[in-house]
Design brief:
Distance between the termini: 71 Å
Strand order of the largest sheet: 3-2-1-4-5
Radius of gyration: 18 Å
Number of strands: 5
Largest sheet: 5 strands, parallel
CATH superfamily of one domain: HUPs
């Protein structure tokens, strides 16, 4: 007698993005993980700034973020990945971890560049955000380094 396999919902990957943050390295890692896990991807942009007088996020910032998320999700869908854009408002680190918990994310995929000396001193820089997200994350965090440009190699004469 064959035992029926219990169907599991697909894994979920949470990919927080800043505008311009979908580097080729990061998208390559997202694509590889999504295919390997058969996962759905949520692309998240968190707007932490609000217009003081109105209490609402700037329409320009909201529109730019939504357009960017739509572009990146379309690009992932072309690669055969189920991707949906999501825009949230609030403090960046708690919001990312809250969304990861809400979605029962299997992994958070973050991009990271090499911080300069000044950035290493400030806890609110990107390097500080990666550490803060990682410390409180409800799931594993994959940090994808930005690959520096390869210097031109001398050609043989």
């Amino acid at each position: 007698m064959t035992q029926a396999r219990k169907l599991m919902p697909p894994a979920r990957l949470l990919v927080p993005l800043t505008l311009g943050g979908a580097t080729p390295e990061k998208l390559s890692a997202v694509t590889a993980q999504a295919h390997a896990l058969g996962a759905c991807v949520t692309l998240l942009h968190v707007l932490d700034r609000v217009t003081p007088s109105l209490g609402d996020p700037s329409p320009d910032a909201t529109g730019a973020a939504q357009n960017y998320l739509d572009e990146v999700s379309t690009q992932l869908r072309r690669d055969g990945i189920s991707a949906k854009p999501r825009l949230r408002y609030g403090p960046i680190v708690p919001t990312i971890n809250k969304v990861a918990r809400e979605q029962n994310a299997a992994m958070i995929i973050l991009g990271a560049g090499e911080p300069n000396a000044f950035q290493r001193l400030l806890p609110t820089t990107r390097a500080g955000l990666v550490g803060a997200i990682s410390r409180d994350a409800p799931c594993p965090v994959l940090v994808v380094p930005r690959t520096p440009p390869v210097a031109a190699l001398p050609t043989a004469a």
